[in-house]
# Entry
Amino acid sequence: MPRPANALIVDDEAHVRMLIKMLLRQLGIETVWEAGDGSDALEKAAAHKPNVILLDINLPMVGGLEVLRQLKAAHPAIPVVIISSQSTMKTVIQARELGAEAYVLKHAPKSEVLQMLSEAFDNIAAASAASAPSAAPAVSAAPAGDAPAGEPPAPKTA
# Structure
């Protein structure tokens, strides 16, 4: 998968969603859906199947970690990047254990948030490419007496 072409931003603060949307545009992501709470996030993820989800931890009704758990259960292939002001080691570890691909601190300077998002998207794209089935042709079986299928023949000696 190349870098994401669209995203779902999940944050209960409209001004934060606006800032993240602006940063995503700088990274070439023009199609963005927004959700202000966990329930809305789950509905929009199901409806739009975004390339990536940016998820806050502190959400009303359904907390971010629970939303992450439900998202990964329902849509395991959609990468989730936590973007939160909460930075305790316990929370970061929980998010990673629940399947978050990256954790970005939204209270960092804007240039650092942009850099962290860019790196997260590059890492997601690289991991996706590494796990994709190879386009290389299959190795055919060797004729009888030669090396087993999939292994190179032994070097010939004079």
Observations:
- Residues 85 and 106 are 5 Å apart (CA to CA).
